[in-house]
């Protein structure tokens, strides 16, 4: 495997496809006429990377279809001619999930940007995958509804990308991830076949293929329509800022809140560096003299919120809190969240570059993991700012480095890999919402053995028999589907000879 991106292995480019580039471009222009095909190197530059900007690679060609029929025709052509395809939404992926390949068609879904149907009676909306996450809530706001998952990038990230990565957000502790809020999809298989999974009904019969598609990172098909669950806005929502002298105290407070049977709409945590950066960015009144800050939001009937605020205050005081401020208006509550949601871009003021990591741990391990991350920070000589969904243990350490300083990118990547190994070591997982992509691909054996990975590959092969969709992502070793069907013989005997063969 080779690639133009230093330090990253990408699938070796198919010379036969590269040699046919002009013919491929002509065929694609016949399918998507007008300005739907971008082939000039300079015009393709905006597509060379996604949110993981440390890695860059120009695609073979960019195609921007505007109808499901065009998507189906493009995929069928690529399947028939054995051309790889990399699906792309808004390009905000932080794991390199939309990183192009030199010999692959980059299939951009940005023109699929319409809200098709709002059905409040069934509490559902049907949207195209290019609609932004926040755009759904704005479309139904006047009706008193909203779409619950809210990634920090919700103003820019698309719902199709959310489906691909099973995105979360600050309010997913109570209301769930994308998989808990998507009811159905229309998708196109690599063969060009259009299929529908789920719908406006609560559950579909048969195999739960919808849950297979959500979080599949573009490896199984291309989503062209999404049916999402709408929720009624809560009667009351109150947020409280709680400052602590140590991150361990804040982590203990999170554990006690959940352990006390309280399920807030959200519990977010930031450490000193992240607090300072966010406050300088939005000026919402975050305390600057604390080591850790929790944002706890409670919603529901007013009486319930008032009671739970008292309980959270009592728990926080028992965990050595030094500041506590409750929102007194909707504007102030939104201000609290403006700082948290601006934390990622705000941290850009602290360092020329940073890696935004994503791993999930059991909540009870928060104090230990935060302590170990400080030790790793000293070991690698790199600062780390912590911003994460504390309520569900989804960490987002931001490793600060300078790409122009020799060796710092490698150090940052090794630091990040150690954090992810630590997550698995304490009983967690490699990703909570950013996906595996290329960032965590080579760490998959840390969490899965060869049998596990082989089973996952067999599932991909059931959808993509030629391994043309987004190859080089998720799986550390690129296999052909034909290899997955082989029966291994050892010592002249089949394994488990007593089992019937079909």
TrEMBL record:
Protein keywords: FAD, Flavoprotein, Oxidoreductase
EC number: 1.1.3.15
Domain of life: Bacteria
Residues in FAD-binding PCMH-type domain copies: 55-233
InterPro entries cross-referenced by the UniProt entry: FAD-bd_oxidored_4_C, FAD-bd_PCMH, FAD-bd_PCMH-like_sf, FAD-bd_PCMH_sub2, FAD-linked_Oxase-like_C, FAD-linked_OxidoTrans_Type4, Oxid_FAD_bind_N, Vanillyl_alc_oxidase_C-sub2
A GO MF term: (S)-2-hydroxy-acid oxidase activity
Top-level EC class: oxidoreductase
Pfam families, per the entry: FAD-oxidase_C, FAD_binding_4
Cofactor(s), names only, from the UniProt record: FAD
Protein name: Glycolate oxidase
Originating species: Xanthobacter flavus
Lineage of the organism: Bacteria, Pseudomonadati, Pseudomonadota, Alphaproteobacteria, Hyphomicrobiales
